[in-house]
Each structure stands twice: as C-alpha cells, then as structure tokens.
C-alpha cells in the first residue's frame, strides 16, 4: 500500500484527527510517480542482482547520485527498498511484485499506469456530462509510432497482471471433463490462455482479437514456450460473425475484462456469438469488475467503483451480477454462478450451455 501507517497513525486517521485527504492527494499520487520512475530506471531489477551502495547504483543506472538518493530514500520510506550500512536492497514486496524474473512481476503494469491516469484528466467534464471523452488506443490509428508505444505498454501491463494474479482463477474453476479446446474472446495478450494451457496439459487455446492484441499474445506464447498450444485468429469480436471463422465447437470460452468496455446491448450480441461457439455442456467463464460483488471489502469496493468511473471516460460501464446473469440466461446458459476471489477488484462468473 502506498501509505504505511503506524498503529497510532491508523487510529488517528480513523478518528479523523489526521488530514487524510492530504495523504490521498499528495503522498499517494507522489509515491505512484516515484514507483513508475523506479521501474522505468530499472532500480529494482538492478538491486535484484545484489545489494549496492548509492554510488555503485548511480553509476549502474547512469543517474546523478544526489538525485537518485532522493528517490531511494522515498522508496525506503514507502517500503519498496531497505537500507543498511549505506547499502540498498529490495524489500520482500519489491522482490515478489517488481522483478523481471519473478513469476508475479507487475512492473509492466506499473509502467502502464500513467496511461490510465491520463484518463482522469477528463473526470470533471465526465461528471458534468456523462459523455464518452475519448477512445481506446486500439481504436485509433495503430500505424502511429506513439499509438504503437501506448499499445505496447497497454498489452504488456495487462499480460503481467494476468500472469501474476490469474492462478487463483485457474484453481477456482473446474473445466468440463476431457476439455480440449478453449476460446479466448478478445484475449489479446493471451495471459489467461497461457495459464489454462499450463494447468491443463491437453488443452489448446484459440485467441480472438484485433491485430495489435494478437501480436502481444504471440509474444506471451513465445515467452512461455506455448506457441504450439495457443493459436490466434484476427477478428473484431463486435463487428465480425466470428463463430464462422472457427473450425470446431469449444469446450470452454473466456470473456475476460471485455464487458466493462461495451454497452449492454453490444455485450449481449457478442455473448450470443460466444455461446454459439460453445458445444452443448460447454462452459463460459466471465471475469470483470462486477459492481455488487465486493463482499463488504472496502478495498474491493474502492477498486471496482474507481474502475467504473475510469472506464466511463472511454464509454464503458461496469455491471452488477443480476444484469450479467440475465444476459447469460437469456442466451440459454444455465448454472450461472458468481465466485468470490481473494484478490480484490474483479469477480468471476461461470455458466454452462444447455
């Protein structure tokens, strides 16, 4: 967490003695910028090789020692680094979440986070008008070098989150017996497909997405040596009748983090195509921010409502479980069930085709 409070500070904050809005605005925002800067510079990966003094680290990173020291001191205070006898090392938190060779590395998403923060510049106008302020980067001219850089950060960040946090999803659901074919609708980076394929040795995944997403997914498949078990089909899942592009009926389909990007009627139309692609008895797995599934968790509620406000700037909406359930049952799906995840901010829904 960006703010590490002592027990006394926590009590004073709860009693409304400390000026919490000041911390939310100044400190949390500042620490976020510091963390992005540290990831961009390679601070954590460099310290992942060995403990280092300020002068050695400054030389390695090609930074001014005094400027770097200011950054390092703040990272120590925020809990990302430890300092002892003039030497710096990564904290347990940094070693788990911010190192390139960690299986739970989310540094690419940290680096992508300023692109998300840029959406918040539109919030005052959004609140006044409730109108879409901008489009997603893959809806823009993808030949532009700046758009390509933006998309590279976008997909790398999403892939890192999927690979770091997705194991809970894999273990929470049980695929149909003998399942062989998985369809990942709008799966772009292929992180979730990769996790399912690693867990189920006989599974083959097909990822449907636009070309920039497919290129990101191919990088993920190559990185995890799954090129022969993950295939890709270029398709606009909203405009194309993609079931006609598929060579088989699927045992399971993923609809992960798509719903919040689309209006309700478009979600229903896309889900109808997903259901058509499933064999009878096939399973649909839905993952998204579901507004009424926060289970009393303040952190989960904060993340879900924050996402709901953010995606509205690009014309998106976060939906409650009854809405999703109605969509699926109307399409002939049964056993529609919501699953609580330990990781806050997203909910898992499963359903079976009659």
* C-alpha geometry: globular
What structural class do the secondary elements suggest? alpha/beta
User: Which architecture of the largest domain does the CATH hierarchy give at level 2?
Assistant: 3-Layer(aba) Sandwich
The end-to-end span amounts to 44 Å
- Please compute the radius of gyration using only Cα atoms: 22 Å
Please outline the major beta sheet. Answer: 7 strands, mixed
Order of the strands making up the biggest sheet: 6-5-4-7-8-10-9
Q: How many H/I helical runs?
A: 15
Assembly annotation = single chain
* Helix residue percentage: 40-55%
Q: Please, what is the CATH homologous superfamily of the largest domain?
A: Vaccinia Virus protein VP39
Fold and architecture overview:
It is a single chain. It contains 15 helices and ten strands. A seven-stranded mixed beta sheet has the order 6-5-4-7-8-10-9, sandwiched between helices. The model has no long low-confidence stretch (mean pLDDT 93). The protein has two domains: 7-101, Arc Repressor Mutant, subunit A, CATH 1.10.10.10; 137-353, Rossmann fold, CATH 3.40.50.150. Strand 4 (181-185), helix 11 (191-199) and strand 5 form a beta-alpha-beta unit. The protein has 354 residues and is of the alpha/beta class. Helix 2 (20-41) crosses helix 7, helix 9 (145-165) runs parallel beside helix 11 (191-199) and helix 9 (145-165) packs across helix 12.
